[in-house]
Amino acid sequence: MENPLLLFPQLNISASKDKPYYKVMKSAIKEEPHKASKPGAKQKRNRLSLLLQKPEFHEGDHLGKPGNLTKAASVSPEEAVKWGESFDKLLSEKAGLDAFTKFLKTEFSEENIEFWIACEDYKKSKSTHELLPKAKTIFETFIQRDAPKEVNLDFHTKEVTSQSIGQPLPTTFDAAQSTVYRLMEQDSYPRFLRSAPYLNLVKGRNPARPTLRRRSRSFTVNDFQGVRPDFTVW
């Protein structure tokens, strides 16, 4: 009997090709998911990175959580009401200062209060040797061009301040501090007094448990269970 492969040579050709083809396909199957997973994971990381950079992503971290603004247990409504008497009264109390600082963080303008606090600490320096390093740090952090926490100062105030950094005095930052103080008093302070967390403190409510609005009545799938549709044609 003759060899079937001689009678049907195409079988021999097919058999010789099937093995390498299978190996190629097998390796391709292994490689394809691996290749596809890399861009997918990278895209997910990129989307997450962009999301974290968006201000609205942090809206949930604002003043509605425990520890934000201040704890209702540590601030009485009477004390909170006093914060509304004047901006100076608010900053003179530690709890008020902490609450206002956290409020400014929600507006991404905490550099103003941080600069004001740094100036207050600077003026408490007991020797001229302490003034120079502190003055340099404050200037590089808050005042010089492209400073990491640059505050909004007019050209004249910034120029006068920068000229005295070489030989700083206790009054070196007075003009700049007064400018930032007025900015916060006239702009941020009124918004703080109108904010929901502050009003909750005045009313004796816990900011960690904001008042929830009841959702309006809406139909659900359960409302239609057991109801047979009417297909009557009129």
TrEMBL record:
Coiled-coil segments on the chain, per record: none
Protein name per UniProt: RGS18 protein
GO biological process: negative regulation of signal transduction
Pfam families listed in its UniProt record: RGS
Entries under InterPro entries matching the protein: RGS, RGS_sf, RGS_subdom1/3, RGS_subdomain_2
Gene name for this UniProt entry: Rgs18
Domain RGS as annotated: residue spans: 86-202
Keywords recorded for this protein, A-Z: Signal transduction inhibitor
